[in-house]
């Protein structure tokens, strides 16, 4: 399955080493579609808050593959049969599961590639690669799409305890330095098993699951939903929206060819042919940053004001408010902004805006995390826990916030 | 010295927390000149070899300041007097010591900003900031230039045991995952002292110094001089040289405004006025990557071939050779390349090229690392060590290599 | 406050270094009363379950002092005044807070030194030391007893967020390898402050408190209340009880002089004069292990059977049962045991016994952990949290178990 | 090969988890001969210097087995055939290689069990176990004795790059907190291979070997040969020698039965029958500590003075001297001691004594560490390195020292 020449070991500060298991995986990793992930940060603008969070989607994808190798090893040790073909398909599917992410995904999905989700683009990439690699990705694609007959393989790729989460919580916690999110992925993986074709966690692993869910909750509040970085993301979405608007008005904005394409065209899912995909594959964080740096000097005040805010980290103030006061506070800050920053009515939405945050560590409606007791009973982890602790984690929590320029408080 | 409002704590995966000690330092950090370091990777193209090495010069600068805070604390604990003014100057000088780095510094210094060293540009930035901050950086600049009366303060900023090295060896080792380079910076700093105005290490710290020098040597071979990343850097220097050449020929290459400026102008040190500096301050890794991605499709074969090699990680083969065979091997590979890749004579230097690497962990001719014995004698660390081990580390080692496209070996 | 000669730095795998701040603290550490803690393991018999958990009460005491140094540093940085005398008293009080622990404390307190708690013995030791050190511990003793006027100093020594917990959760998690219990003590300490003489945590630290309480809960289940080590502890208590019983019957058991003293005498708190204290100070883990090794060959079957169970790790089975079935299961196993192991009726309690475990991460009735909001309001952490999660942690959870020899299941 | 019931996973703070691969290994671990290693500290009296160094020979043995599992995995991945029987024999041999250690081995070997080395006793234990386990250890014993036909298997157990060193350097560095000794064992093991039946390291691993040898050198100076702990060890050897002398004179010293046996009998290798072995198996650190605590009050001044020095950490001063001045300094301190501590002539050797330390990181005369180049040449690591650095490490370095009571400097 491997040729010595291509057999590679990569350093990882977290796991020590990541081994590339087969030449096919090596070749997929070498493909420009995958190499582009080197230039897309996993946590987008979070490094504005946590300066260590510079790690890339490339490294995360490798980490997921490593976690999957551990999982296969543990399950086989417990006498669960996984064929060599299935094994490789698992590695491919998890390696490529996020390949459809663009730069600053959340901001992009609400501005540049509207209404196309990154999972859909991942699938498009996989199918394009499957053609190039003469059908060798077919099984991986089946599993990724959730169509394969063996359910636990699908769950390893996508579920509330999948290998994606095993890596990203640990990796994001590691690089951001937010120790509250550190989970013991290897310990958790040691505890998994398969029963009636379904992924389960052995009873003694229940505290590891509890730790994992609590860590997830804390990572959401402290990282993914950190109000400053969520605010920065919204800012970027506003910038891209404005850039698109100006472009539609015929104003030529400096931008890379790839970015220009998406500013000039409204791309729906149906439009995503090979040419569009190749354009998309050329987009990464560098295009955005280069554009923002040019745009900070543009004559359009909205574009330049907001671009400058990100490039030079003059971020907006992000104010938490209650649901009830949301509308009135929004009005209040818009009025203030209009006066202090001298913004026109129709541009106020670019300067004062808000949204809500939602945090739910465990989703009651999704496929549950299952515990297998010593007597081989299967129960939902919420039932297995000894107290209300975990039940509380399944309650979604909402927070509302409003962003506005800090200068509106100045005289 | 601090106003609560600006008092900030930053997360660092290595040290836990970094505290910003004064509002002046906070304000300097907020300046666009410093914020740009967020977009320049500390290890340049090394992430092509070590995917974790994505950390920025911004984070390194903060880490140096943190190490300096430890050093001040240790020295004061040992009754060395350091005034509050000197303390802050130390923090400023170390925070800004690398502010003059451009993106992919080594490649740049041999192509874009020829004959101007990053230390010189750092000083230009500091002086510009000193004007803006009304002279508050004057003492820091004196120390940085090596003009201050108290010698050990200068040594903390720049010497064979300065706070820069304390942070970068540890940080680069941490993020690259090359454990051989991990040093115990805090332990080393615990061991420093001052005697007759000169920085010394207490005798019991001699093994820590030995470990530090060995780690430095290993980091050079495994990271800074890793042949693949050195080869990639040379490749980038060739690309920038070609781009400049084409630009001089009147060919308009797609590039950001800032990059265009440096392609169009030969900038000497004397030319570095405020406007040039501001242009330089707009340059970062994103400009280079965006350009390379555009250039990989350019009609100039040299430009597109080499750009593609970096963007899609189709790096050249890097062959170690002896000093004696260097010239003949270079001729050999150029001939091969001419035939296989169909390169014109005058472009051969862009496709087949070489250089030498130099590794010297401890420089005998520079200001030595001094050990203070229990009887208060000062001796060079080489004399203090119990064996030839350290002496060996002061011998420079050279390696020669040649880079060429992998395709010249194909049929 | 310090003389160079005695100024010491100690290595700690967790914190890197621990500095001894004053000569008085150095001298206290050198005292045989304190040095004995080197021979008492922090987690008693837990190393039978977690082989890394061999760390001593000596090291924990130093770790607490180190945490206290951090706390003092943080509070002073926030302009809370702490005099040098108070500072040293804090270090003394936390260094000595556990000095009254005997070997395998939990087993001892139910057998050898009945009805005298280790806190009381700690106080006796402190008072004896205070005499030797001519009153220099008086302030520390006031704080330890909770009598001092400044309440937050008392809370740093003993509360639901004291420096003892800061160290032991981290240390026990580190050495046992139970990663679920790892807390970020330094981060938590960064967040403390004092308001109206009371210890508070700043609002942004609320997730760190949540993590801390969850970690505490998990450490209880996985370490402190691990059924196997709790079972081993009960076994040891039974052995000591039996040894005392046999001694009362005039049977001379091999034992060190110190252990013999406590086997021969029923020591109440009132009996604890200097001579008794000195005898107690001679007791450590070695006395117990040496005795057990001798006793495993004793003619008394109870003594030898149980001693062998610990020495050679032939631990009893520990069966979790419900509260309701506890009594009937106890009867059942005693009957089985009587038959299979041939135990006499009056000795059955030595072979089959049970107890209940209680886990409550946060005590609603004790002094609460207080959060201070940005508007300087003080609220209980339970109120400050955004969900039921923390409330759940204040519900005590009970588990019942029964221990019996594994051999009763054999034919 | 494994029965689910006995399949166990153990926590290890260093590696995360250690898996017990077969039931035979589980059963060997449960044997009292092996369980006793729980009560013997790996680094003896070093915890008097490094308070974290409380880890046991039990844990080290498990760590070695874990390293061996990694080595087998790596070699098989590189297509080196290792049969299941050989695999298990490797695990057994490395698990038991140190089973013959008594408590405070170095002190013991020069006093209690004179002229019998721990390797010989290890072999005696293995042979006794082989009888009990009906010959299942025969292959392991062959390998341990160096008699097996496949040489690299022997080298994995015992050589300058064996799995013993892989674990102990890492483990001792971890627990002592001496970061200079931290090696990347997993990385090194990734680099091993077998060529012509001999263990080799791949060329790219040369820096890891260099780091390993330097770490070894530093660990010797900072831990194993730390003058304070070497001094404490000599002190203990003196105590045991005195105890034996007094016992021979008919004085009955309090001691456990096992210790008494070795005080009363001069045991040569030929005397080591099953009964002696069983007596030896009862000895551990607890016997020594319990004895020392009793002996500190003995009427024999030598015994009580020295015992008190260890129990209460009133260690002797250890003075480094040159080889030339050794004898004269020894005379000088003996004369001083005679006067100040009032020691009789014939007892002076118990109070003032010295020795030499020897540190050689790499032994030129032993089986070398072999590097395999890309062209499959085998060369000694010294030849493969690019400088004198490694050659220097093969020079033995000697230091001379003298120990004496600190009180001889008082008036």
From TrEMBL, chains A, B, C, D:
Q: Which SUPFAM superfamilies match?
A: HD-domain/PDEase-like (SSF109604)
- Give the matching PANTHER family: DEOXYNUCLEOSIDE TRIPHOSPHATE TRIPHOSPHOHYDROLASE (PTHR11373), DEOXYNUCLEOSIDE TRIPHOSPHATE TRIPHOSPHOHYDROLASE SAMHD1 (PTHR11373:SF4)
Q: Which Pfam families match?
A: HD, HD_assoc_2
Molecular function per GO = dGTPase activity
**Gene3D superfamilies according to UniProt:** Hypothetical protein af1432
Q: Which InterPro entries match?
A: dGTPase-like, HD/PDEase_dom, HD_assoc_2, HD_domain
Q: What is the lineage of its organism?
A: Bacteria, Pseudomonadati, Bacteroidota, Flavobacteriia, Flavobacteriales
List the source organism: Paenimyroides marinum
Q: Which domain of life is it from?
A: Bacteria
Record GO biological process: dGTP catabolic process
Enumerate the spans annotated as HD domain: 57-169
**By what name is this protein known?**
HD domain-containing protein
């Amino acid at each position: 399955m491997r040729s010595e020449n291509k057999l590679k070991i990569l350093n990882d500060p977290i796991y020590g080493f990541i081994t590339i298991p087969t030449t096919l995986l090596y070749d997929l990793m070498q493909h420009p579609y995958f190499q582009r992930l080197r230039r897309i940060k996993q946590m987008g603008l979070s490094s504005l808050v946590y300066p260590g969070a510079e790690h890339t989607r490339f490294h995360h994808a490798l980490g997921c593959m490593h976690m999957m190798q551990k999982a296969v090893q543990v399950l086989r040790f417990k006498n669960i049969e996984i064929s060599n073909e299935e094994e490789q398909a698992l590695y491919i599917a998890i390696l490529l599961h996020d390949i459809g992410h663009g730069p600053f995904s959340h901001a992009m999905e609400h501005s540049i590639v509207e209404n196309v989700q990154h999972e859909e683009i991942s699938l498009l990439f996989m199918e394009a690669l499957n053609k190039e690699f003469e059908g060798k990705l077919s099984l991986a694609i089946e599993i990724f799409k959730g169509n394969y007959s063996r359910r636990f393989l699908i769950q390893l790729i996508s579920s509330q305890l999948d290998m994606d989460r095993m890596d990203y919580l640990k990796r994001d916690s590691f690089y951001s330095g937010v120790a509250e999110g550190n989970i013991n992925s290897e310990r958790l993986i040691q505890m998994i098993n398969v029963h009636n074709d379904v992924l389960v966690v052995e009873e003694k692993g229940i505290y590891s699951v509890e730790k994992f869910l609590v860590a997830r909750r804390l990572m959401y509040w402290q990282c993914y939903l950190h109000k400053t970085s969520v605010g920065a993301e919204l800012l970027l979405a506003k910038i891209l929206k404005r850039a698109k608007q100006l472009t539609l008005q015929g104003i030529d904005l400096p931008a890379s060819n790839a970015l220009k394409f998406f500013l000039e065209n409204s791309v729906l899912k149906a439009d995503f042919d090979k040419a569009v995909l190749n354009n998309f594959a050329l987009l990464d964080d560098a295009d955005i940053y280069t554009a923002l740096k040019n745009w900070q000097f543009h004559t359009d005040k909205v574009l330049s004001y907001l671009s400058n805010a990100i490039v030079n980290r003059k971020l907006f103030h992000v104010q938490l408010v209650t649901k009830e006061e949301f509308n009135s506070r929004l009005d209040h800050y818009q009025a203030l902004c209009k006066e202090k920053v001298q913004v026109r009515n129709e541009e106020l939405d670019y300067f004062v805006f808000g949204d809500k945050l939602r945090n739910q560590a465990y989703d009651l409606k999704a496929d549950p995390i299952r515990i297998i007791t010593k007597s081989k009973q299967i129960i939902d982890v919420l039932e297995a826990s000894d107290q209300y602790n975990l039940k509380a984690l399944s309650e979604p929590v909402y927070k509302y916030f409003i962003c506005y320029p800090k200068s509106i408080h100045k005289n």
